[in-house]
Amino acid sequence: MSGGFVQIDNAGATSLSAGFSIKNVTASFSNGMSVGGAGNPNFTANWNLATGAQDDVSKPSWILGLQVSNDQMVFSRTPPGGTGVTYMLISGTGNVGMGTTSPRAKLEVVGSGTTTGTAFQIDDNLYGPKVTVLDNGNVGFGTTVPGAILQVGANPNIPAGSTPVEAVKGNLVVDGNLYGTNAYVTGNVGIGTAILDSSSTPRIVITATELQVNLQ
């Protein structure tokens, strides 16, 4: 015990920045826990509580900080010999932030840029991507590189120079009204039918070479 602090370890350190610390030094780095002091308990890996730095600069460090004074929980990582980065934060209001330290919603994910980096993705249990959201806001179902604000299916035929809001690869079924200014279609269009095949009798079918109108 020193100056009101209690330390249990085998490192021989003589000073602590928190009220209670337990450290276990193995190999070249220590794992520790500090409680009390400034009211911000930390659980650490490869982090020296006495010096506030990495024990082994050739390895990364992780810190789980319960910051009572800031009313938040922080998960941070310091790369080998580098500067710490907060990966996830839970605020006192219950908001969760990933890539941000000031989440404005119950869950806010901030990507690494503003272009085609992946900000969010949902996979199946075989790690096949099903839903992807890029940093630029494009959302893809069945594709990891959506070229429109909403793209369904991979590699739709998007005309050169166009910037569509939605792009669909495959069949599109609309049960209701469909409004738009421009439409690019590379296959059949059926109005009055949900299935375009030999058994259907659509009222209007447009192909690349003809316009069919069936009044039956």
Oligomer: single chain
Structural shape: elongated
Order of helices and strands: EEEEEEEEEEEEEEEEE
Instruction: Characterize the main sheet.
Output: 9 strands, mixed
General description of the model:
The strands form three sheets. The chain has a nine-stranded mixed beta sheet, with no helix packed on it. Helix content is 0%, strand content 36%. Strand 2 and strand 3 form a beta hairpin. The protein is elongated, with a radius of gyration of 28 Å. The chain is built from no helices and 17 strands. The chain is an all-beta fold and 216 residues long.
Jot down its keywords.
about 220 residues, mainly beta, 9-stranded mixed beta sheet, 5-stranded mixed beta sheet, 17 strands, elongated
Short note summarizing the structure:
The chain is mostly beta strands. It is built from no helices and 17 strands.
Element layout with pairings:
Layout: E1 6-8, E2 20-26, E3 29-35, E4 42-45, E5 61-67, E6 72-78, E7 85-91, E8 96-98, E9 107-109, E10 118-123, E11 129-134, E12 139-141, E13 150-152, E14 166-168, E15 189-191, E16 204-206, E17 211-213
